[in-house]
Design a protein that fits this description.
Pfam families: PMD. The chain is mostly helical. 52% of the residues lie in helices and 0% in strands.
Length: 104
């Protein structure tokens, strides 16, 4: 349970909570999969050393992941298939580019 951290928490506990929060952001917000019910193990080594997170180009990685998930969603044929990727990024792009239904 990582929803509440005490103000007088030890530094190792703060780092553990930070790792869990970053893992949640990577898996649930930036790089979600189509199922939404599993966490991909490929993100765990990235969170192992928090100092290494700054050397990656996260914007281009999120964009590439979203394009890949859009391509896979177009190729799916089952009734239960759905779109994945950073849907928030797509929604913001549509809000900026498509004036339909947007307040003036």
């Amino acid at each position: 349970n990582f929803s509440h951290l005490d103000d007088a928490a030890e530094p190792w506990r703060v780092e553990c909570y930070a790792r869990a929060y970053i893992l949640h952001l990577l898996e649930g917000v930036l790089f979600p999969d189509a199922g939404g019910d599993i966490a991909l193990a490929m993100w765990i080594p990235l969170v192992a050393n928090l100092g290494d997170l700054g050397r990656f180009s996260w914007g281009s990685a999120v964009l590439a992941w979203t394009y890949r998930q859009l391509c896979e969603a177009c190729c799916r044929q089952t009734p239960s298939s759905n779109m994945s990727g950073c849907v928030l990024l797509i929604q913001m792009w549509m809000w900026l580019r498509l004036p339909v239904g947007r307040p003036k």
